[in-house]
Specification:
Layout: H1 3-27, E1 38-53, E2 57-62, E3 70-78, E4 83-89, E5 92-99, E6 103-116, H2 140-156, H3 163-172, H4 178-184, H5 192-202, E7 207-214, E8 219-222, E9 225-232, E10 235-239, E11 252-257, E12 263-266, E13 268-283, H6 284-294, H7 298-301, H8 309-318, H9 321-335, H10 344-355, H11 357-378, H12 385-409, H13 423-440, H14 442-463, H15 466-474, H16 478-489, H17 499-502
Antiparallel strand pairs: 1-6, 1-13, 2-5, 2-12, 3-6, 4-5, 7-9, 7-11, 8-13, 9-10
Length: 508
């Protein structure tokens, strides 16, 4: 395999790996490709209140699990004076608070943070039912009322209005029939959703309760909402028993699907559970990082995000250097711009980022002009090159210190960042430009100096682009693609852009 073929293969591998890892982080880890992307995070609090009877207390609360539309980011429990544990039973997590003795009004809290996540897997607990819904134990009068409701629903139903919707419409009516009123006011006092499930069981239709929360900003002390999920034609279909509408309401968070109860209490009375919700808008990257860390994704766990924040800030600037290098390679190989030093423009661009562009250009011109004047004076003294460069370096440092003090006195704070200019590189550049002046004249110095400034300015704009900053820091894998592009450009043997004018008279 020839060297050109090896470079092409290596470049293809680097670009493929870089782009592939980036797409993986975007599609599977949900890192945002665009800067400023945000996601809504909901804080939902469940507050349990009850009166303790002076003895042992045990409160048992069903906890939400993974679901299709939302992802749980974090959960916390507040239970002063209680022993706390979490148990799992039939894929249902339940929080258990226990205490040997409590008296008076008690408050227990459970708080979780959730965010929309349409890519989450559908939980396994909504597969086909393994056993029929248990029928209710009706009293004789209640059974007669239930059968009457069912017969009426059958009579009113038709091809355009199935019996299920008719039955739910009767239960949810603002003015219910006498039979519905009798069942809702029975000793057990079932909710409309529970009554719908009992009646559907009489028809042999599989159904269970869904308890959840309507996500609203600044909602306070709302009771749980109960829906009915019915197994129809091989799918679970959700209905609102209050309105008969099909489908989950918008922004509805499922707290419990099926299960015997939402809250069980032993040793207390007058138990009540209420929900509050609050929305916050946070950067999408923070959400993706939290989810990835909880799943222990190696691509994130062994990444820049694992470093301290101070070190991350340093690498945020360093990761921009390859972008500046790509700009330099393009200008030198494709355009043909001559610069003083190969990658001096990249270092100058980094300094411009700290000082702002116009301020940085002014400082650079003053330093280089002053350095050239000092260098021309030292050249008449027959000094060794090392001593000469050392002297120029000291002069550059003194000038920078003097400019900093003067700018501070004048209130020109941007110039205080001139310490970011690479002093040693500046001193060596001044030496090279002086030699070029002596050997090739001031025109070549102007060409190389102007080319360096032009490339530095272009690199500055590329490195300060918000999208570039976002991609290099959050998707550093893309730098492998940048490396592949630079390797490909290294094999370019065609005309440079500035050479087209030189060969304009050649016959094509």
């Amino acid at each position: 395999m020839t060297s050109r073929s090896q470079i092409k293969l290596l470049s293809a591998v680097l670009i493929s790996v870089g782009v592939g890892l980036t797409l993986y982080k975007f599609f599977f880890l949900h890192f945002p490709l665009m800067p400023g992307s945000v996601r809504t995070v909901w804080s939902v609090e469940a507050k349990i209140t009850f009166d303790a009877e002076g003895g042992a207390i045990e409160a048992n609360l069903a906890l939400p699990g993974d679901q299709h539309s939302f992802e749980i980011l974090d959960e916390t429990f507040a239970s002063s004076g209680y022993d706390f544990s979490i148990e799992s039973n039939n894929n249902q997590r339940r929080a258990i608070w226990k205490s040997e003795t409590q008296d008076g009004e008690q408050n227990l809290y459970y708080n979780l943070q959730i965010t929309n996540n349409e890519h989450a897997a559908i939980p396994a607990d909504i597969t086909a039912p393994s056993r029929p819904t248990t029928a209710a134990a009706w009293l004789p009068a209640e059974r007669e009322a239930a059968l009457g409701i069912i017969e009426t629903a059958k009579a009113r139903s038709g091809p355009d209005r199935p019996i299920i919707q008719e039955l739910l419409a009767m239960i949810g009516a603002e003015t219910p029939s006498e039979d519905v009123h009798l069942l809702l006011s029975s000793a057990d006092s079932p909710s409309k959703a529970a009554l719908a499930i009992h009646l559907l069981a009489e028809l042999g239709i599989y159904a269970h309760l869904i308890r959840g929360v309507k996500l609203e900003n600044r909602a306070h002390n709302n009771p749980p909402i109960e829906l009915v999920e019915i197994y129809e034609s091989g799918n679970w279909i959700t209905y609102d028993p209050r309105t008969g509408e099909k489908g989950l309401p918008e922004s509805f968070f499922i707290w419990q699907r099926g299960g015997p109860s939402l809250l069980d209490l032993t040793g207390g009375s007058k138990s009540k559970i209420r929900f509050s919700s609050l929305s916050n808008v946070i950067p999408a990257k923070n959400v993706a990082l939290k989810l990835a860390r909880e799943e222990t994704v190696a691509l994130v766990d062994f990444n820049i995000y694992s470093l301290p924040v101070e070190k991350q800030t340093v690498f945020k600037s360093l990761l921009l250097v390859p972008i500046g290098a790509l700009v330099v390679v393009m200008f030198r190989i494709l355009v043909g711009v001559r610069t003083s030093g190969t990658f001096m423009p990249v270092l100058i661009a980094l300094a411009f980022i700290q000082t702002t562009l116009l301020t940085g250009i002014g400082i650079l011109l003053v330093l280089v002009a002053s350095g050239l004047w000092v260098r021309s004076y030292f050249s008449k003294m027959d000094l060794h090159m090392v001593s000469r460069i050392g002297a120029v370096l000291i002069i550059v440092v003194v000038l920078m210190a003097g400019f900093s003090v003067l700018s501070h006195k004048l209130g020109w704070d941007e110039a205080l960042n001139m310490t970011f200019f690479p002093m040693v590189i500046l001193a060596w550049t001044i030496e090279r430009m002086s030699i070029t002046w002596e050997e090739e004249g001031p025109r070549e110095v102007a060409i190389q100096g102007g080319g360096s400034l032009l490339v530095a300015v272009c690199a500055y704009f590329a490195m300060t682009n918000k999208l570039v900053e976002h991609l290099t820091f959050n998707f550093p894998e893309l730098l492998l693609g940048v490396l592949g592009l630079i390797l490909l450009l290294g094999q370019y043997t065609g005309f440079r852009l500035l050479e087209l004018h030189r060969f304009r008279h050649m016959d094509t």
